[in-house]
User: Fold this.
Amino acid sequence: MKKTVLVSGGAGFIGSHVTVELIEAGYEVVVADNFSNCDDTCFEGVKKITGREDLPLVKMDFCDRNAVGKLFKDYHIDAVIHFAAFKAVGESVADPLKYYTNNLQSFLNVLDVAREQGGCNVLFSSSATVYGEPEKLPVTEQSPRQAATSPYGNTKQMCEDFLRDCVAAYPGVRGIALRYFNPIGAHPSALIGELPRGVPNNLVPFITQTAIGKRACLSIFGNDYPTPDGTCQRDYIDIVDLAKAHVCAVARMLDGKMEEPYEIFNIGTGRPVSVLELVNAFEKVNNLKLNYKFAPRRPGDVTAIWADPSLANEKLGWKAERTVEETLAAAWAWERRLK
Ligand code: UFG
Assistant:
């Protein structure tokens, strides 16, 4: 029988790509979302890509404990991937309670239901933000977590700890935290991708919106960092590659391959790319010129961070495959489709 994976926040950017890869790998998926930060564009795209017009969608808020309990009664859930959360760093500084209430309560509810039903496989969507400004690069899973610089980052650390402690305490609860580096790009079909509301905070949506004329000019935040070209370095991971890592992690849990009941994996490429390199690559692969200028540093940005992904390579049997050029071409195809 097919195993069923619940994807909370499954209508969003990462959740929709993961849903596609799970279905293509032969899993049954239940998508749950409250559509607080997206419309149904990606959910409709997922149905088109997979040919699954009947894909189950539950409109619900994970902060509602009764609704989460009912969901687990209505469906036999073998594993849950928890994406449902707010994700804007700046907004979390301005309104920490919004972030603490939503991001923590929703995950506590998932864990409480997992406990109540005597166990579940729980995959938590964490972030490289937990490493702060690393002392040594690349970062491994053993690199120390640093004090969070935003309430958003704090919720990622706290949720990791919730999962670790619940796995230790409640029989049958197993968990994996995936620490993503910088997810970018879009599905090659251009049917799903990132849909930021308002002015994008993240680099690639800002680049594509500038290229298409929605924004006048990209500001590159800082060119005086101690890096080869003075701009920040990140580990940009293709969204489809990232989605595939989830399929590997779910399979590891469901096939009884975990070596510890709680495991952590970095999901990145291992390749540092500077802001300027990314902009140049975007211009080259898409054969266009981008209007950009150098601007002051953005408060809270780390100078450089990239992953050592060897643990995920070895234990999950997963590796990032797409080049940054392929990913930037996909991001541009998605932006043009939205026009
Ligand atoms: N950048 C620009 N101009 C922009 C936007 C971004 O120069 O308009 C630069 C940033 O300064 C940074 C790089 O592009 O050097 C990447 O910025 P993003 O905002 O795309 O990504 P971050 O690395 O800041 O964000 C990531 C994750 C977040 C996480 C955060 C923690 O996307 O989820 O790290 O700091 F919270």
Notes: The longest strand covers residues 120-127. Residues 87, 89, 127, 129, 152-153, 182, 201-203, 206, 218-221, 232, 234, 275, 298, 301 surround UFG (CB under 6 Å). The longest helix spans residues 96-116. The mean pLDDT is 97.
